[in-house]
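Q: Joint fold for the lines below.
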Amino acid sequence: MSDQDQPDRDDRVLAGEYALGLLSAEEAAAFEARMVREPELRALYAQWAEDFAGLTDDVTPQAPPARVWQQIEAGLFDTRARGSWLRRLTLWGGGLAAAAVLVLAVGLPDLVERGPVPPVDPPYVAQIAAEDGSLVVQAVYDDATGALFVDREAGGAAPGRALELWLIAGEDAPVSLGVMPQDAQAILRVADDLRGRVAGAVLAISDEPEGGSPTGAPTGDVLAVGPVQES
Amino acid sequence: MTTRADIENLIARVAQGDRAAFKALYGATSAKLFGVTLRVLNDRAEAEEVLQEIYVKVWHNADRYTVNGLSPMTWLITIARNSAVDRLRKLRRAETPAELEERIADDAAGPEALAVAASERGRLVACFEELAAKHAEAVRRAYLGGETYADLAARFDVPLNTMRTWLRRSLLSLRECLTR
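A: Joint structure:
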């Protein structure tokens, strides 16, 4: 397969183009589908990834400012600072559920949207629906992993607005579970300290500015609600 | 000095949800990855945001590291590079053709600016040197500058298909050289 006249037919070249992010979304998806089945193709990609990483050898390391670590920690581990951070996590979650090979493509979520899959045999389910059916979201929740799979069956955010998902446990104030991703199906990750509070709680969706509520509490209309029930 | 085995070990512990290991991994690798994001984005505020995204991805995907066959630094660098390129392309989508022209004229740094330093990657350097200078620059710009075929065609002022052919032939030559 080293026909110099037709380099575009060579998998070695294709793997290089994929590694550089030069393929169109369709071509990249087709390449990824093949990688799932073809270990040789994965090896070709891995080889390019190693070689191209060498192009960063002359990149001078630079210590990032301390705030970067503080924000990472707050975003991942501090539930008081969620909001827009969870949104990013859930956007990322869109790429997570696809085959393990997607790790190879990590960081190119535009190219690897394959859609998450709901947990098998989930302990809890909820239908978060508007009374008039203008917004319907099915949710399934696994308290062991904190994975909350959402499937938006009807409705969506208004232009320039966002849908934010809230957990209302008992008499407590609503706690944000994050902004609903643009994709109809996604997995949101419930923070460790909230995991035990989902059972028996109510999930609600409110209309918020892009990026989610700026205050940490719902600011717009509550569009849909639904109780979390054992499945 | 953090060795490859140290980083692998840290990633394995992060996969188990070990926050201390996550902090240690950040300590050992964030300067390199920040350097990479800065190189791609050339904007500190954007690079800082992307660096946060990168470590969130690392936290959530560490358990998948072992299956992908990459060395640990390559895995991290690839996440960093791809995340930065992703951001760069989002920023560029808003660009008008005039702005594109201006950007390309502005950062017309010569190949020196993107040269690969002499290092243990001598083979890589040697193989890039076997390419025509323009072709080597195109490959480097695709990787470190996140440039698309359209960007590269505009930069080198050649038709899109010519650019594709250049780049594909360059990749083939590189691969043949690298596996010699």
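Q: Anything notable?
A: The longest strand of chain A covers residues 222-230. Chain A touches chain B through 59 residues (CB under 8 Å).
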